[in-house]
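In the laboratory, one determines a bound structure by crystallizing the protein with its ligand and collecting diffraction data. In a computational setting the workflow is compressed into a single prediction: the sequence and the ligand go in, and a structural description comes out. We illustrate the idea with adenosine-5'-triphosphate.
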Amino acid sequence: MTPRQSATELARQLREAGHVAYFAGGCVRDQFLGHEPKDFDIATSATPSEVLALFPKANEVGAHFGVIIVRHEGHHTEIATFRTDGSYKDGRRPEAVTFSTPEEDAQRRDFTINGLFQDPDTGEIIDHVGGLADLQAGVLRAIGDPVARFTEDSLRLLRAIRFATRFGFAIEPGTWQAIKDQAHLLARISPERIRDEFSRIITCPNRANGLDQLVDSGLIEQFMPEVLALIGCEQPPEWHPEGDVYVHTRIMLGMIGPDAPLELCLAVLLHDIAKPPTQTFDEEAGRIRFNGHDALGATMSEEILRRLKYPNHVIEEVAFMVSRHMQFMNVQQMRTAKVKRFMSAPTFPLELELHRVDCASSNGFTDNLEFLIERREEFAAEPLIPPPLITGGDLINEGLTPGPRFKVILEAAQTEQLEGRLIDREQALAWLKAQL
Ligand code: ATP
Ligand code: MG
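The predicted complex, in structure-token form:
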């Protein structure tokens, strides 16, 4: 059973019990745009206790706000009573809700394209907010007075950019003006919720435009002001004919694939984040330099992502990728053991993509990329880092006492192995004796 079939079945049961039940919000919008929704929400005239009477095993944690979650055939469907949200005290959530009519329920929703209902049986769309016309025209518009709507729930500021980015919609001028005027209200929203919206924007295929909108609206200043310094940060034109660091970064964001994982999107966004603070003018060579921008960039990326409460593994991977992005320029000078170790990092496939777009967006060089792709094929038959030929036990057998020297010797043995000079254990033991 698909999510749609499951939700249709639940709606039918509500109707048979005498209640009104519609599909509501995102699922109606997505179907209209030709995307099969991943989950279906139902809006109904039944009160939470009436919903619970029909589905006694449902999850009632949201009943206070009028929402019951029903598990049916492996799918979770939210069944929400038509309601009006009471006043918002803190710009985050309503203090109380009142059960009401479909018209009023549509009015409490954020954007017209999210305010539609659909009759599950006939497919008829019920539009109290002008959402159909906006869907057709590709317009994102707040329902009601935009200033009031962003003031009562300031997360909507970011949701607006997210939906506009995801669907490639234009933000209606009054809504856009309100976002700009109210951008400072984002300060009331928790870093976790900002992070979740931001992640969804930066992983959209259309993420370069999303970033522009975050910049132009003033929203990014509220949570990642470091990005603003990229704008107008000049680079040597012979390496970067495309323009300043912001232009370079946004071109790269557009070049990575539509399904690029979050870690790659963040690494691309942040790879040159330390260019502004490291920029110097080398008088002798007559050119701009950014010495150490990779190492400082890793530190800054870590700070930024920690502030936004990203999980540790995301922070570590992104900082690691930023710290290594300049090493791609030297791969052809590395000896084999070093190349293998470099390529053995779990993030290497993402880093290769970062490097590809770093060049493709600027100087167009492909030699380091091609070199690494060839090495990858050449080394593909065996693990990059094979099991060691000798271990600490062998050193003890040779009469050595465990200590810092062990690591040095074992690493030297691994280097010989990676370089192909030691093939088996016998050779490795002979090499060890010769070393000692
Ligand atoms: P997605 O595909 O991202 O889930 P969605 O439109 O379903 O998009 P949800 O956050 O799941 O978004 O919310 C479901 C519906 O609830 C929205 O379509 C909208 O009608 C309403 N809604 C959600 N969040 C808000 C909000 N902050 N303010 C007003 N209405 C909201
Ligand atoms: Mg949803």
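Residues 25-26, 41, 109-110, 114-115, 153, 155-156 surround adenosine-5'-triphosphate (ligand 1) (CB under 6 Å). Keep in mind that any predicted model is a hypothesis to be tested, not a measurement.
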